[in-house]
Amino acid sequence: MRRAHHPEVDEIALTGVMAALSDPIRIGLVRVLADGRERGWGELRAPVAKSTLSHHLRVLRDAGLTRTRQEGTRCFVLLRRQDLQARFPGLLEAVLAAAEDEDVGRQVSVKDGPHPA
């Protein structure tokens, strides 16, 4: 993996965030990552091919929702909760609450773990 670009907080655009959150799989990934834990890509389970999961993770990263870190051959992803709160106060919490209410993204989980709440 080449060095990933992560937008600075002031470069995170509302339209980019909203576009990234327009897919149920990506909302599910955000729900899983909302617990604040950094996850290895191999821990994430979604009903899509690995290449498609990689695409979804890249969309989230490019929009500024996540930060990706590479360690050897493994990649890890973390939700940029504080950065999003600083840029768009309350937005992430509203999205997570609505996703839970409407059960959006429930098909995404963590290996050997429960589906997000």
Description:
The structure is a single chain. The protein is an alpha+beta fold and 117 residues long. The protein has one domain: Arc Repressor Mutant, subunit A (Orthogonal Bundle), CATH 1.10.10. 43% of the residues lie in helices and 15% in strands. The protein contains five helices and five strands. It has a three-stranded antiparallel sheet with strand order 1-4-3, covered by helices on one side. Strands 2-5 form a two-stranded antiparallel ribbon. Helix 1 packs antiparallel against helix 3 and helix 2 crosses helix 5.
Structure at a glance:
With 117 residues, the chain is of the alpha+beta class. It is built from 5 helices and 5 strands; from the N terminus they run H-H-E-E-H-E-E-H-H-E. It has a single domain, classed as Arc Repressor Mutant, subunit A (Orthogonal Bundle).
Features:
single chain; alpha+beta; 3-stranded antiparallel beta sheet; two-stranded antiparallel sheet; 5 helices; 43% helix; 15% strand; globular
How would the blueprint of this fold be written?
Elements: H1 14-20, H2 24-33, E1 39-40, E2 44-45, H3 50-63, E3 66-71, E4 74-79, H4 81-87, H5 91-102, E5 109-110
Antiparallel strand pairs: 1-4, 2-5, 3-4
Distance between the termini: 32 Å
Query: Residue ranges: pLDDT <50 for 5 or more in a row?
Result: none
Q: What is the count of β-strands?
A: 5
Largest sheet, spatial ordering of strands: 1-4-3
Helix content: 40-55%
What is the domain tally? 1
The secondary-structure element order is HHEEHEEHHE
pLDDT averaged residue by residue:
93
Beta-sheet strand percentage?
Answer: 15-25%
What is the alpha-carbon Rg in Å? 13 Å
Supply the CATH superfamily name.
Answer: Winged helix-like DNA-binding domain superfamily/Winged helix DNA-binding domain
Quickly count the helices.
5
> What's the shape?
globular
CATH C-level: Mainly Alpha
Structural class determined from secondary elements? alpha+beta
The CATH topology label is Arc Repressor Mutant, subunit A
